[in-house]
Amino acid sequence: MSVEHAETAENGPAIPTESTALIEPVEAIESVDSVTTAEATLTATTYYSIAPGYSVNVRSGPGTNYSIVRVLPEGSEIPINCQSPGTWISGPYGTSNIWDNIANGQFVSDAYVQTGSDGYIRPHCG
Q: Which of 22, 56, 75, 77 is 20 to 30 A removed from 13 (C-alpha atoms)?
């Protein structure tokens, strides 16, 4: 917003000037929580590689007793939202009962995901 001002020079006519300062009402910022939420949305997502040479079943829950909802092709990278205990599985990265939640209702065995850890790396699923 620009604001026009008129200044009077000593012993002379009024000289118009322009201020480019922005004047915003405090009400323009709804709350600190809304700013924090916006900043949290910008947090980068980490993706983890599926073991080379493997296509991996994605299941509807944390275990082999859950239905297969899709298959990840070789070379896939996945986000891990949270982790849950489930069926024990042996894979290229050891034997584990940790299942990685990659999307709503989608889990893969951690034994096929290169996380760099034998334990939990993300919060337990709620």
A: 22
Q: What are phi and psi of 27, to 5 degrees?
A: -65, -15
Residue 19 and residue 10: Cα distance in Å, rounded? 20
| Structural domains for the chain | 3-41 (no CATH), 47-114 (2.30.30)
pLDDT tens for 31-40 read: 444 444 444 5
Report CA-CA distances (Å) from 78 to 99, 103, 115, 121, 125.
Answer: 13, 9, 10, 14, 16
- Model confidence band, residue 42 (pLDDT cutoffs 50, 70, 90): low
Residues facing residue 95 across a β-bridge: 90
Contact 82, 99 (CB under 8 A): no
- 3-state secondary structure at position 8: strand
Which burial class, exposed, middle or buried, applies to 54 when counting CB atoms under 10 A from its CB (0-12, 13-18, 19+)?
A: middle
